[in-house]
Amino acid sequence: MSSAKVLILMTSPLDKIVHALRVVESIKLQHPELEFTWVVRRFYEPLVASFDFVDRTIVFRRSEALASFASLLREIRQDHYDFVLDFEGYARTGAMCFFAKGGRKIGLRSAREGASICYGEVISKLSDERRHLVERFQDFGSIFGLKPVLSEALSLSQGGRLPDLVRGMFEDARQVVCLFPGRFKTERAWSGMSDLAARMVANHEDLEVLVLGVVPHVLSEPLPDRVHDLQGQFSWGELCRILASSSLVVANDNGPAQLAGALGATNLTLYSFVSPEVRGTYPVGAVANAALKAPQGEVSLLECDTVFAEVEKLLAL
Q1: CATH code reported for the domain at 165-315
Q2: How far apart are CA 64 and CA 155, in angstroms?
Q3: 4-144 belongs to which homologous superfamily?
Q4: By the 8 A CB rule, do 46 and 160 touch?
Q5: Among 96, 43, 102, 103, which Cα is nearest to 71's?
Q6: Residue 81: exposure state from Cβ atoms within 10 A (0-12, 13-18, ≥19)
Q7: CB 3.0 to 4.6 Å from 304: which of 139, 165, 192, 295, for a disulfide?
Q8: What angle is formed at CA 273 by the lines to CA 20 and CA 46, rounded to 5 degrees?
Q9: pLDDT at residue number 98
Q10: How many helices (H) does the chain have, and how many strands (E)?
Q11: Rounded to the nearest 10 degrees, how much is the dihedral formed by the CA atoms of 274, 280, 286, 287?
């Protein structure tokens, strides 16, 4: 295939970006001559930009005025793309697709908010809603005649290393567990992370726990020895290095566990309402990609004993 420019539209949230990253990497590995530009929300732009298979990023400022969106459209229109692929499928990305200068404008059948009227082509199957997002996104590969093949883990950029703040923990060959207690929707954040951390270090003398944050979270209890609150200390690239090197990552359904799984780390996601069968760490059902669903969708009903038992199983893998 000759060189071509491809515009990827996927602005947020984190779990969907992670699933899209895996598919775009697969396409790039099979067709390295393709040049990918990615439109992404400002908060996640450093993450997307940290992967070498993404050639360029364009920042979407969701919370700013309409004038900012008009500026974004002008930036998109500065180049001509052979393919415009709307992975997100909402009104905002539909508008981006409509105004982009592109040869083929393609979206998913499951697009909402009228986005599909902005496409020249729609791919995927009628049963989209029952399929995992990764499998839906893989349908974009058919445009390039590709097989739906994923690498075992996302490839981090060359030359990066673990941050100095935590490198010693990993070099000492200890087990390192990462916890992400925060969540954008705070009412769906499980409140037992501090208790879980205390149980883990009490049960494992060689274990260190890192409390990390995509979303800041105030811990209400003092932390015991070998539990380190390092929220807000690392860049997205550094977080990826840490996750890829960790023994286990435990997070609310906010994307970090899916990112850890995509980087090849054992992970546990705590779900309230979202279906892990559709948006969970892929492949769903793999032993290292664990999930717990809160009873009746209420995380307050998820007992620490249940989570701790699952953590112990995963640490023994």
Answers
A1: 3.40.50.2000
A2: 33
A3: Glycogen Phosphorylase B; (3.40.50.2000)
A4: no
A5: 96
A6: buried
A7: 192
A8: 30
A9: 96
A10: 11, 12
A11: -60
Positions of the chain with pLDDT lower than 50, given as ranges: none
Q: Which among 269, 289, 246 has a CA at the least distance from the CA of 152?
A: 289
Q: If DSSP codes are grouped into helix, strand and coil, which group holds residue 14?
A: helix
With CA atoms as reference, report the closest residue to 196 among 292, 108, 265.
292
Give the pLDDT of residue 65. Answer: 64
Give Cα 140 distance to the centre of its chain: 18
Identify which of 120, 134, 136, 32 has the alpha carbon closest to the alpha carbon of residue 84: 120
pLDDT at position 64 is: 67
Residue with structure tokens 């997205």? 236
Domain boundaries, the chain: 4-144, 165-315
Q: What dihedral angle (degrees, nearest 10) is formed by the CA atoms of 61, 47, 232, 303?
A: 100
Q: What is the pLDDT of residue 263?
A: 97
Task: Quote the tokens at residue 96.
Answer: 């981006």
Amino acid at 94: G
Say if residues 41 and 72 touch (Cβ distance below 8 Å). Answer: no
pLDDT in tens, 233-287: 999 999 999 999 999 999 999 899 999 999 999 999 999 888 899 999 999 999 9
pLDDT at 209: 97
